[in-house]
Design brief:
By secondary structure, the protein is an alpha/beta fold. 41% of the residues lie in helices and 15% in strands. The relative contact order is 0.11.
Length: 354
Amino acid sequence: MNYPTVEWRGSVATGVVRLIDQTLLPGRLKFVRCTDVKQVWEALRMLRVRGAPAIGVGAAYGLVLAVRGSRATTAERFLADVERQAAYLASARPTAVNLFWALDRMRRVAREEQGLAVPALKARLLAEAETMAAEDRATSIKMAEHGLSLMRGVSTVLTHCNTGGLATAQHGTALSIVYRAQEIGKPLKVYATETRPLLQGARLTAWELTQAGIDVTLICDSAAATVMRQERVDCVILGADRIAANGDTANKIGTYALAVLAREHGIPFYVVAPLSSFDPEIASGDEIPIEERSGEEITCPYGLRIAPAGVRTYNPAFDVTPAKFITAIVTEYGVLHPPYNRSIQRSFKDRAAT
């Protein structure tokens, strides 16, 4: 996209977090200005900002808003404010590890720079958040380049949920590959699932790709098996909200079903995610906390009742795809192949060495 999903505008003292309200798309493109941490928390919780990398960047900016008004006069008291506000922001969403990664990074910077005066510490935190946003944009470009190596002989891909610019600071994870292919004159066709219950594929992915002039076909979630059986797609590409040390991957609900279908039909299944979406402290997907959301998202989406009042619901926002179903994982450090416990560990060593 030509504009950031979430960004900081202005000085540390008077600036605002400007973000796209994704709940209004595709009918309306609206930029929201958040002036306090509660507004950022609400934006994260209500999916005005969503997508693991964008959640991380948004949380970092939210922490700057939270502590810029701190009346602390010593670094010790300021650090206490940082810890308290970071814990508050972390409560917005439980699954996307980028949220916790970004807040932990901000905490670490505050601790390491506590020799600075409090006003300088506030400015340092904003600088770190801006660095994270810039790194995210650069990471998207690197993932696109590495992902293109998997697209030889591929003309059509299937994707789920939204992994484009709306899910990151600007460019995207899985869809960054599609955008890069178009840039170099080798465009890919896309089948996008609607992604029930909140329709991120229909509302966001189809909107993004249409805006970019990319050939996109929207399908119901339940049509994916038929599309694969009819040999309409060459591979599946999607993102991740948290990846365990063994490669098990949590992503939008419905991802696991697509992985099983892809295996049955002999179709490669690729995950595209930055290292900030990996959680090496979690051994397997069994340990990943799965967010459960309100049943009203199923029974009364966007205010339209489609199920009887009072019916019981079960609405996990994510599911976990076992690593055995994943053909490869694309990161900013290259393409990872099984066994993932080794290739993931090697990638973290490569990052530490740079």
